[in-house]
Amino acid sequence: MKIVVIGGTGLIGSKTVAILRQGGHEVVAASPNTGVNTITGEGLKEAMADTQVVIDLANSPSFEDKAVLQFFETSGRNLLAAEAAANVRHHVALSIVAVDRTDNGYFRAKVAQEKLIRTSGIPYTIVRATQFLEFLGAIANSSADGNIVRLPPVLFQPIAADDVAAVVADVAIAAPRSGIVEIAGPERAPFNEFVARYLKAVGDPRAVVSDSEAQYYGGRVQEHSLVPLGEARLGRIGFDEWLRRSQAA
Q: Which domain holds residue 210?
């Protein structure tokens, strides 16, 4: 099976490409660096030739509200049009758990991307994931005020990138769901507790403070804003195991 992975050189993409190649599939790791650009359209027609499945893992280089919306709408339209012309049989996209229950610019852009997919006429599966364990450090930095990290005490269920890639690869070679699959990590705890565990483990002396007024990437979140509400596929890698692997790497 020929599978094109848009964003195939990124964090999730590179792991997904490796899994699919180990499974014997012909995989194109597509990105601007490899001559495939979903914004300009460069290389899309050539990449789509004889392709059965496309996995869209592309991400915006800017998180500014207007720029990120423009990225996902432009990228989505160009990619889906190329897929339709090539009769691609399955479009898989990575999105975010609670993307339609949390209000910030990035989430609104992902909602727009999902709408384009649903109305494209191409059989699809949308994989909505919780936040990645790999981004705990970046979250702490974005929420820091000097030596204090302020985070809302909402529920958090982060997932390892290896688990995300495994599910994305599994979904890609299965039949299209024409719906959403939600995935999350195996552990659920208050947001501030997860980040505090991480900072302590890596020797970061900053204190984590629970603050119900703190925002998450510019938006207010409620207790269940960042976790699945219903059935979800759970990853296998817990926080401690992930930490061991990341420190060994």
A: 2-248
